[in-house]
Amino acid sequence: MRTIALITTPCVGGTFMAWTMEYLAGHSIMFNVSSDEYVDLTDIKMPFKTNFHNLRANYCDSMDQIRDTHSALSDIQTNAFGIIYFHPFMDDANKEIQYINDNSIPSLVVQLPPPFVLYLTLHTQRHNGRLSDDIIINYFREDEVYWKTLGLTEIYDKREFVALNLRPFDFKYYTGTRDIQATYTIMAPDVWFNLETVIYDVMHQFDINIDNNRIEYWALVYNEWKKLHTKRVEWCWYFDEIMNAVLDGYDMDLVRFDLDLFQEATIQHELIYKHNLNLKTFELYKFKNTKQLHNLLEPNIHDLSKSKIYDN
After folding, report:
1. At residue 109, what are phi and psi to the nearest 5 degrees?
2. Which of 7, 107, 245, 260 is the most exposed place for a label (fewest CB within 10 A)?
3. 56 and 95 share a domain?
């Protein structure tokens, strides 16, 4: 069996992409190396809650696992292909990419472009664990014991704590997929919203024929899977408009975005670090509209905008 490497930014849809390529190629089963068993590719349960991880794709989180998975897939006597899926963010990422290149494994890279860095700044995770202590610290989640050790019990105090400590615009963690000399590269938004078009180019690049009998059902699954991303992407698209409305005092409804703790903290974070402003947050339990926030603006006690976290 030949191997294809799928290299993605975390949480942007790599598992779904792995299923798509195998399913549209006409495969009914996929060999999962870590569990040493075949996985049914046709038994997809909808709707999805947060991700597609029940598929159990061949995700690798170490150099040894990549090597072992490639070896196991190569030993299977078939003309089909198998996919190794990983994120190039571990300590030995360069070695992993070098291994892929040295073994002439064709690779597909899915990148998260900088304008979508806020895609992951939500309280609800799409992955099964934490990405990195540098990006999402454990006590930012619903760890009530830890919150109490900080003396933070009210939502507005938790929000401000997150706003002061979170670095939502720090893109360096997501740059691992950049500058990889891959067989083919696509952007994550194409996977989220345009895959019914892009997939034909992807499959052609890897010399894979699409089983047209699979298209109709795949489209049903894809349209359901898209819903996992809609609110997250809207947040990226509208963030600048939200901030402008807060600063200028325009009345913009925020209920439509169903903002969570992380998103509200991101708004407060930018006010603090970019505009030297803060909010009178006492008993501010929910951000409902931008006019409400504008009326609560006040100069920040300490000018953290001089910290140069951002180029003001």
Report:
1. -110, 130
2. 260
3. yes
